[in-house]
Write a structure and sequence with these properties.
CATH class of one domain in chain B: Alpha Beta
Helix content of chain B: 40-55%
CATH architecture of the largest domain in chain A: 3-Layer(aba) Sandwich
Shape of chain A: elongated
Strand order of the largest sheet of chain B: 1-5-6-12-11-10-7-9-8
CATH architecture of one domain in chain B: 2-Layer Sandwich
Oligomer: heterodimer
Order of helices and strands of chain A: EHEEEHEHHEEHEHEEHEEH
Helix content of chain A: 25-40%
Radius of gyration of chain A: 20 Å
Largest sheet of chain B: 9 strands, mixed
Distance between the termini of chain B: 13 Å
Number of domains of chain A: 2
């Protein structure tokens, strides 16, 4: 049997991951046609590559269906409760940097901190009759962060994409999303709260704590990790 | 571990006991409309309750407790006064502690009665205490109403009192607000700049929150900056109040002392004293009964008076085996213009059986 390595199946994240492994003597490549999710591993025996959606890699690691996987800290912490009992970080890959942040319209001169957001939310609810809506796909992380900060009278609304546009579209009053340069936020007239950083994320190689291994697989994993270190 | 049928049998037996004492049996549905619960508790309820949905009825929650549906039922067609009992599953989403049950059986007793709040408080506590008789449990009582009265009685602006009241169930946030109003934490630099008129921006207005709302908040902040700081004495009185943690007679005498400097809590302390008398009249040993002024503050925000819990001395890792309290404000929120004083409590028959077996 083989050690299964899960890698994001498309885009820059896949390319950067391939480059990172190549620099350490492990070649990962897609085989077959452009559209086929088949892949091969060179430079070591006994490792198989699985191309997966970055969002599914946390679940596959937690279930022990893959031994190693590359995905962001944000997705691990959002999708896995008690994540540190299920997976362990092996290496930070130094790309895919993104911060999960809370942002509000730049025009809100009176709101700069979570404390302001809480007060604005109370007044908003009294004025409009519903809770101030925050659009996000990171429900658990955002909720825990806001609870810790004592923010009340908000509601999370689900937004799986184009989250920065929700305020202008009036489906939310604020957002919590990942950003790398802040460019999209600025273009959408949003600003980050000064204490609104929820999590700093980057692409990370994770090891499953739950995947079964026989002696051969254990030896393969040790050899692989030695090359990657 | 008791089996499910053993737990259900125990639950039925406890419910029958309450029924024999005059309570009406109620059986609210397991699926509750999510909207009511979300409106009451906000986003935090999603971390505690399972949400499901269908295309027809939208979001539904698996009942995280019985209190809300019982109150709703009572407010639409309940007799006055009324006593209710129920037994069945409640569901609690768990995200941190795999040892905590996400589904368990609860038995409850709820009293809606305008006549004598102290007597109703004592009735609920005594009935539950009786049901737990023989188990190694230690009761703790408290009273959120005293803290609320103290906040209302502070010598400061209505706006500050409202902010404190809003966060009474979030102890950390409450404390930081208190410190800010007392002037003991510095004003954030960005707020100072805003108040000095130094924050301008030409960003376009987007979203539902209007320029008027922004200006109104800035006006409120200006007004607040002009208001005198909350005095150190008053902050100390709140701290002293929250520190009260004694057996009932000593706690009451501490509270009477504090009431001399904070007369606004006088009525609430009198009510606590009347409750202690009512508890004693029902045979509770109030000389040994613990009173903690901050008890029940970190739980869900509907208790606004008497609160109590029974902890298992041999199992500090367990949640309270029984708990309850007064929730007058909840009946007002759900009553659509109506309200009625209400108090109730719940027990965990599964944990009771486990405890019996360990003895």
């Amino acid at each position: 049997m083989t050690i299964k390595l899960g890698v994001p199946s498309k885009g820059r994240l896949m390319e950067k991951t391939f480059e990172w492994f190549a620099a350490r003597g492990i070649t990962l490549q897609r085989t077959g046609s452009d559209r086929e999710y088949a892949a091969a591993v060179g430079g070591i025996d006994g490792v198989s590559l699985m191309l997966l959606s970055a969002g599914e890699i946390p679940r596959e690691l937690a279930a022990g269906r893959i031994h190693l996987g590359v995905t962001g800290t944000d997705l691990i912490e959002e999708k896995l409760a008690l994540w540190d009992q299920l997976v362990a970080p092996v290496e930070e890959l130094a790309f895919g940097h993104a911060d999960l942040i809370v942002a509000v319209p730049a025009a809100w001169r009176d709101v700069d901190t979570l404390d302001d957001l809480d007060a604005a939310a109370a007044a908003f609810r009294a004025q409009h009759g519903f809770r101030l809506r925050i659009a996000t796909k990171y429900h658990r992380l955002v909720r825990e962060f806001l609870r810790g900060a004592g923010v009340a009278d908000y509601a999370l609304v689900d937004s799986q994409g184009a989250t920065e546009g929700t305020v202008k579209n009036e489906t939310a009053e604020a957002i919590a999303d990942i950003t790398s340069s802040g460019e999209t936020l600025r273009a959408n007239h949003l600003k980050i709260l000064s204490d609104g950083l929820i999590l700093k994320s980057q692409a990370t190689l994770w090891r499953s704590r739950t995947a079964d291994m026989d002696d051969d697989e254990r030896r393969t994993l040790a050899a692989l990790l030695k090359k990657l270190a | 571990m008791p089996t499910r049928s053993e737990t259900l049998a125990k639950a039925a037996q406890l419910r029958a006991m309450f029924e024999a004492q005059g309570a009406i049996v109620v059986e609210p549905p397991i699926l509750q409309p999510a909207e009511t619960l979300l409106d009451l508790y906000g986003e935090d309820i999603r971390a505690r309750a399972y949400v499901t949905s269908d295309a027809l009825r939208g979001e539904q929650m698996l009942r995280p407790d019985y209190t809300v549906p019982v109150v709703q039922m009572h407010m639409t067609h309940g007799a006055d006064p009324a006593r209710y009992t129920y037994a069945g599953e409640v569901f609690r989403r768990q995200e941190h502690d795999p040892e905590r049950a996400n589904e368990f059986i609860q038995v409850g007793y709820e009293v809606f009665d305008r006549a004598d709040p102290a007597a109703a408080d004592a009735e609920v506590f005594a009935r539950i205490s009786e049901a737990l008789n023989g188990l190694p449990v230690k009761p703790v009582t408290g009273d959120i109403g005293i803290l609320m009265a103290a906040v209302k009685g502070l010598d400061t602006t209505e706006r500050r009192k409202a902010a404190l009241m809003r966060h009474i169930w979030r102890p950390r946030r409450f404390r930081s607000l208190l410190e800010r109003f007392a002037g003991s934490t510095p004003v954030p630099a960005t707020r100072a700049a805003l108040l000095a008129g130094a924050v301008q921006n030409d960003a376009p207005m987007i979203g539902l929150r209007s320029p008027q709302e922004i200006e109104a908040r800035i006006d409120a902040l200006r007004e607040d900056a002009q208001a005198p700081a909350l005095s150190a004495e008053q902050v100390a009185l709140i701290a002293a109040l929250l520190d009260v943690r004694e057996v009932m007679p000593n706690a009451l005498s501490r509270l009477h002392d504090i009431a001399v400097d904070l007369p606004a809590i006088g009525d609430a302390v009198d009510l606590a004293a009347a409750r202690a008398d009512a508890l004693a009249a029902r045979g509770i040993d109030t000389d040994q009964l613990a009173f903690e002024a901050s008890y029940g503050r970190a739980s869900m925000e509907y208790y606004d008076g008497f609160v109590f819990g029974f902890r298992v001395e041999t199992r500090p890792d367990w949640p309270a085996i029984a708990s309850g309290g007064r929730y007058d404000a909840l009946t007002k929120r759900l009553g659509q213009g109506d309200e009625i004083p209400a108090v109730g409590g719940v027990m965990r028959p599964g944990l009771m059986l486990e405890l019996e077996a360990a003895q």
